[in-house]
């Protein structure tokens, strides 16, 4: 069924990505239930498990099968891509209101960013709700569409998980509500804190700082109105952590920038690290940027 045309519908990619993220979630649950995570350490505080690798193989296999191996893709894990027996599902496309401008674009101007398992550290530590499969679709360097699939809604959970997706000009599949309370609440990393992060956190004068893992999970908390901002003004995340979540946050009318307020570019050859950190909000973005500017290194 591989489509070897030079043109592609971003809606078709989103449809297959949604299905692939859910199937990846099944793989992640199976590895968790087996109790054999097969943890390897790629670096300090940077684990990878059998679930990360198997999920990425499946996602790449499905997208290549549907769109051809010339679809530009970047994945977190360094792994081969065996042919998959699974069938890519394009059925969801009928329900998506894809803007005309994204229906027939040059495949070589697209790039799909895959984080097969975000919050691996939390997975290893058993903080399961933070775990998410993230797939982002960029076009001409901009995050346009994305899906975040949460396989474990609670720590002891047998549901089918939560699927959140969005596309610029189409919106999101779930209702979104900005937090609207008097106190100011931010979420930041649980496991990758630095001295500078502490200093920057003080500079924004939060009433409460929630420390939880996962780039996708913190974006989910923003979308649900549980926090005012995802605050991570330091290096650590990579393009696959942010492309999908950024597209969803922007589809919901929110802001997703580096710590200096600049937008993030997503092409196959832009450097992978988000060197200048992340600030993610549905409202009040400029206030946060103004407060941290005094502690940031000058550009
Ligand atoms: N210093 C780091 N080294 C490696 N990955 C990082 C680092 N900081 C953040 N990340 C990635 O960004 C995600 C969000 O960060 P945090 O959980 O600290 O808030 C992490 O789960 C991890 O993604 P992944 O688990 O996919 O490797
Ligand atoms: Mg990782
Ligand atoms: Mg990640
Ligand atoms: Mg990952």
From TrEMBL:
<dbReference type="GO" id="GO:0046854">
    <property type="term" value="P:phosphatidylinositol phosphate biosynthetic process"/>
</dbReference>
<feature type="binding site">
    <location>
        <position position="76"/>
    </location>
    <ligand>
        <name>Mg(2+)</name>
    </ligand>
</feature>
<feature type="binding site">
    <location>
        <position position="117"/>
    </location>
    <ligand>
        <name>Mg(2+)</name>
    </ligand>
</feature>
<dbReference type="InterPro" id="IPR000760">
    <property type="entry name" value="Inositol_monophosphatase-like"/>
</dbReference>
<feature type="binding site">
    <location>
        <position position="241"/>
    </location>
    <ligand>
        <name>Mg(2+)</name>
    </ligand>
</feature>
<keyword id="KW-0479">Metal-binding</keyword>
<dbReference type="GO" id="GO:0005737">
    <property type="term" value="C:cytoplasm"/>
</dbReference>
<dbReference type="GO" id="GO:0004441">
    <property type="term" value="F:inositol-1,4-bisphosphate 1-phosphatase activity"/>
</dbReference>
<dbReference type="GO" id="GO:0008441">
    <property type="term" value="F:3'(2'),5'-bisphosphate nucleotidase activity"/>
</dbReference>
<keyword id="KW-0378">Hydrolase</keyword>
<comment type="similarity">
    <text>Belongs to the inositol monophosphatase superfamily.</text>
</comment>
<dbReference type="InterPro" id="IPR050725">
    <property type="entry name" value="CysQ/Inositol_MonoPase"/>
</dbReference>
<dbReference type="InterPro" id="IPR020550">
    <property type="entry name" value="Inositol_monophosphatase_CS"/>
</dbReference>
<feature type="binding site">
    <location>
        <position position="118"/>
    </location>
    <ligand>
        <name>Mg(2+)</name>
    </ligand>
</feature>
<keyword id="KW-0460">Magnesium</keyword>
<feature type="binding site">
    <location>
        <position position="115"/>
    </location>
    <ligand>
        <name>Mg(2+)</name>
    </ligand>
</feature>
<dbReference type="GO" id="GO:0046872">
    <property type="term" value="F:metal ion binding"/>
</dbReference>
<protein>
    <recommendedName>
        <fullName>3'(2'),5'-bisphosphate nucleotidase 1</fullName>
        <ecNumber>3.1.3.57</ecNumber>
        <ecNumber>3.1.3.7</ecNumber>
    </recommendedName>
</protein>
<dbReference type="Pfam" id="PF00459">
    <property type="entry name" value="Inositol_P"/>
</dbReference>
């Amino acid at each position: 069924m591989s489509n070897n045309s030079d043109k592609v519908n971003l809606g078709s990619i989103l449809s297959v990505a949604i299905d692939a993220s859910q199937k990846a979630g099944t793989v992640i649950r199976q590895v968790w239930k087996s109790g054999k995570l097969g943890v390897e350490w790629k670096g300090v505080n940077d684990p990878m498990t059998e679930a990360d690798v198997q999920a990425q193989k499946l996602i790449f296999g499905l997208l290549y099968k549907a769109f051809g191996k010339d679809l530009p893709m970047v994945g977190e894990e360094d792994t081969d891509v065996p042919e998959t027996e699974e069938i890519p599902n394009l059925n969801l496309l009928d329900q998506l209101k894809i803007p005309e401008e994204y229906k027939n674009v040059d495949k070589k101007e697209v790039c799909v960013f895959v984080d097969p398992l975000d919050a691996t550290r939390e997975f290893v530590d058993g903080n399961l709700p933070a775990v998410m499969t993230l797939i982002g679709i960029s076009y001409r360097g901009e995050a346009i569409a994305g899906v975040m699939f949460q396989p474990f809604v609670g720590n002891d959970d047998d549901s089918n998980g939560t699927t959140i997706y969005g596309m610029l000009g189409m919106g999101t599949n779930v209702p979104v509500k900005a937090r609207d309370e008097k106190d100011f609440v931010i979420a930041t990393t649980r496991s990758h804190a630095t001295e500078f992060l502490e200093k920057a956190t003080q500079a924004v004068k939060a009433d409460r700082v929630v420390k939880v893992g996962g780039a996708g999970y913190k974006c989910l908390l923003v979308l649900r109105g549980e926090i005012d901002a995802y605050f991570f003004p330091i290096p650590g995340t990579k393009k696959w952590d942010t492309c999908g979540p950024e597209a969803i946050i922007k589809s919901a009318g929110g802001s997703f920038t580096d710590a200096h307020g600049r937008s993030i570019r997503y092409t196959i050859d832009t450097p992978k690290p988000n060197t200048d950190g992340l600030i993610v909000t549905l409202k009040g973005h400029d206030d946060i940027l103004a407060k941290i500017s005094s502690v940031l290194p000058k550009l």
